[in-house]
Fold this protein.
Amino acid sequence: MKSLKKGDKGEKVKQLQKFLQIVPDGDFGNLTTIAVRKWQELNNLTIDGIVGPKTWASMGIDTKLKPKYSRKQIEKAVRSLGHTYWTTDDDFDLNIIGVRNSTTAGRVTNHYDDYITVSYKEKGKWQYHCWEATTDPGVYWINHPLNKYGCAILTPGQYKKVYKIDKHNGKYNALCQRNGVVSVYRDNNKDDIYDYKVDTIQKGYYGINIHRSSAYKSSTYINKYSAGCQVFKDPDDFDDFMEICYSSESVWGGKFTYTLIESKDIV
């Protein structure tokens, strides 16, 4: 369970505030800190104002948000596109599926309005996660492309065994494009619209990795965090994702498949 502390924002903070019977504005500020410390004192917990595992457990509330898409929706969409979706009973046979938001009509929002999902079986039971992310580059790199042909935008498709756990930019472990090529659109006109044009597609090793944004907090804006990579909004979500990948690596080895679909493919 993700810990919450002063400075955090979002729906989980609102749930906490409702439980503590204070104004649910989604902003973990001084009043929320005071309320948490009072709760901890009343329940003989460490009084630090941080809602960690023991404080969550003492409250007995469910902080899990309903995912944007269900596992069955994702499976149906992936299969309808002719891609493979693994359903073996073996542990940690991962389906890593990105969902690009079609409702923005290609507009560069610079927000994390896409999703990365992972589904697999563990001890014969389905496990499923759906996390906020971006599958598109941020506004900075759209306007300052690293490649002379334009900024890279991963094309929808299934990239089998293309990814492995390695250092992203030599700094921290992520899923990195090391084992094969990917296809990207090239956007070079800097008009704040993603150009998904077939005649710009290139294939190659472009370092389209799956990584996190900030190491310390959930990000609001993409900015420089993605030049075409698939990027998690919340570092805690990314950490959970990587723990699943480590478990999969121990069973299946170091090759991961990533599939990118569009929200319009989901019914």
Q: What stands out?
A: Residues 235-252 form the longest helix (18 residues).
